[in-house]
Amino acid sequence: MLRVLMFLVPLALSVYAFIDCISTKDEDIRHMPKPLWAILVLLFPLVGSISWLIAGKKRQPAGAGGSAWGRGGGRQQWVAPDDNPDFLKSLDEDKKREKDRDADEDPRTD
């Protein structure tokens, strides 16, 4: 079992680092161009992966402010609908439109 873990852990780390490297925007990469980072991760799986995770990518704090969907300039984070002011505003607008439509169709008005 230990032999399998000694093989799978570095493999999983290098696969994660490689996918993270190639999916990262060019402006978020530090110190070297993206192709060099990808080659480093592929040629030296353990050292390259750890290097990429530590020094290769600009990281942002988890609580960085921003818009309702993309809190910060990096990865987008999902926001629950009841915390999204744009969604709540659209609900109010839908209610107003429905109320106006019902008032136009109401047969009791003379």
Automatic annotation (TrEMBL):
Domain Cardiolipin synthase N-terminal positions: 12-56
Compositional bias (Basic and acidic residues): 89-110
Membrane topology (UniProt): Multi-pass membrane protein
InterPro entries registered for this protein in UniProt: CLS_N (IPR027379)
Keyword Metal-binding: no
Region of interest (Disordered), ranges: 60-110
Name of the protein this chain belongs to: PLD nuclease N-terminal domain-containing protein
Organism the protein comes from: Streptomyces erythrogriseus
Compositional bias (Gly residues): 63-75
Residue ranges crossing the lipid bilayer per the database entry: 36-55
Lineage: superkingdom: Bacteria
Localization terms from the record: Cell membrane
Record-linked Pfam families: PLDc_N
